[in-house]
Amino acid sequence: MAKRRDVVLDVDERPKAGQWFGLSLQHMFSMFGSTVLVPILVGLNPGIALFSSGVGTLIYLLITNHKIPAYMGSSFSFVVPMMALMKTTGYPGIAQGTIAVGCVYLIVSLIVSFFGSDWIDRILPPIVVGPVVMVIGLSLAGTAAKDATINSGHYDIRYFMVAMLTMLLTVAFNMYFKGFLGLIPILMGIVFGYVIAVLFGIVNFAPVVAAHWFSLPKFQLPFINYIPKFYWGAILSMAPIAFVTMTEHLGHIMVLNELTERNYFKDPGLNHTLAGDGTASIIAGFVGGPPVTSYGENIGVLAITKVHSVYVIAGAALFAVFFSFVGKLSALIESIPSPVIGGISFLLFGVIASSGLRVMIEDQIDFNKKRNLMISSVILVIGIGNAYLKLGQYQFSGLAVAAVLGILLNLILPQEAASEKQNEKSMKKVS
Fold first, then answer.
1. Which of these, 71, 58, 65, lies nearest to 255 by C-alpha position?
2. Cα-based distances in Å from 99 to 90, 95, 239
3. Residue 129 above 60 pLDDT?
4. How confident is the model at residue 408 (pLDDT cuts 50, 70, 90)?
């Protein structure tokens, strides 16, 4: 493809050595908080999650022929069943569930390989894609707001001030800096936000002081740390949720399609994107990590910086692997308080939502048509409000429900409402 003039670095372009370091570090900081939070909630080792996210991302890039700038991080969709399994089977059960999730992805990728992906254009037109992309960003708004205000279950004005100052500084860096500093506004925002948080007295340095410089992640390897056996309950409790995360996977690919002006459903193909995601989860299961999935935080960084290079994503993955072995650095990054992440997230998630709005504007979606109004309204309110569907122990997020309903409405609803046809006939008679 010809070089795009509206981006700093296109997907296949390699940054200079000095830029590469800062740009990759920026992506690693953006995903770090969520990636280590999942194992902390479940009771797994954060270092393993960091390691598996880095290795999983490199595998994903390899399977997708280095064409998709996506980062793989720990998935929150599996937290509830993993917490339950941790109390019964321990990690061996979680490992089997995680591997099963990856296998589901691989099976679906094989089906796509045989039957193709042309059906995607028919079921995912701009009137569905735009609102779904908006939901991906806006549904995370509550998480960002909570990070920016809540301290141990209570509102903390210091958190709010730190989050707002972090956000405003990041906006300023993005708008007024140029050259290399103009490429790393997110990283600059995190660094300065961290300093502000220190001044407000909300950073705990004790874990950093106590951490060792070299700390081997506590890997959970089959036949070494435990003797594997079949845990059908674990497999059945986690594998079906893979279909939920696949919906989110499709949504992220849609966003990346719009950002990079490519069609990843065709090249390298949906079969490759699913296979990459699934293989990454299988690797995570074999080393002791949770299932992984593509991260909206990193997509937000791509949108803000206009640096789409897969080399930068690969660099972030290498940093993640390296930091998983350096106890001091891991502890330092873990010490970044939630309001700093919240302040940054206001921008990252907002930019994703704005990308969905751009999809509809560029396609000139006519909201005077009832059909378009009905589809977008259902997707936005159900998705943002998180009207989730719970069937027994399985829970499908509001995003998944909204996406499915949007697809069904697009396939079922006529192009024109009955009243619109009647008005057209009336207008013709008058003329």
1. 71
2. 15, 6, 9
3. yes
4. very high
Q: pLDDT, tens digit, for every residue of 353-387? A: 887 888 788 788 999 899 999 999 999 999 889 88
Distance CA 22, CA 177 (A): 15
pLDDT at 109 over 90: yes
* Residue 67 contacts residue 267 (beta carbons within 8 Å): yes
More confident residue, 161 or 259: 161
